Amino acid sequence: MKALTEFIAKALVENSDQVAVVQSRQGNRVRLELKVAKDDMGRVIGKNGRVANAIRVLLRVAAEREGQQVTLDVMEP
After folding, report:
1. Can you give the pTM of this predicted structure?
2. Torsion sign over Cα 58, 77, 17, 45
3. pLDDT of 30-57, one tens digit each?
4. Which DSSP symbol is given to 35?
5. From CA 13, how far away is CA 37, in angstroms rounded?
């Protein structure tokens, strides 16, 4: 999950070196925190949160294949 999130985020942003993903687990739940540069927040969130929601959908599908649940939080820089 972490690698997929990093891959997608780095493809979207201009400052790919400032992309960081922190993963934590509790049982079959995975929580991902995505941090990007302040200038790239709009690219990751998108208009009305559409890009962030699309990333969440992709992560849910990948997690379900592994029998897990995933949440993605985009953190303020």
Report:
1. 0.90
2. positive
3. 999 999 999 999 999 999 999 999 999 9
4. E
5. 8
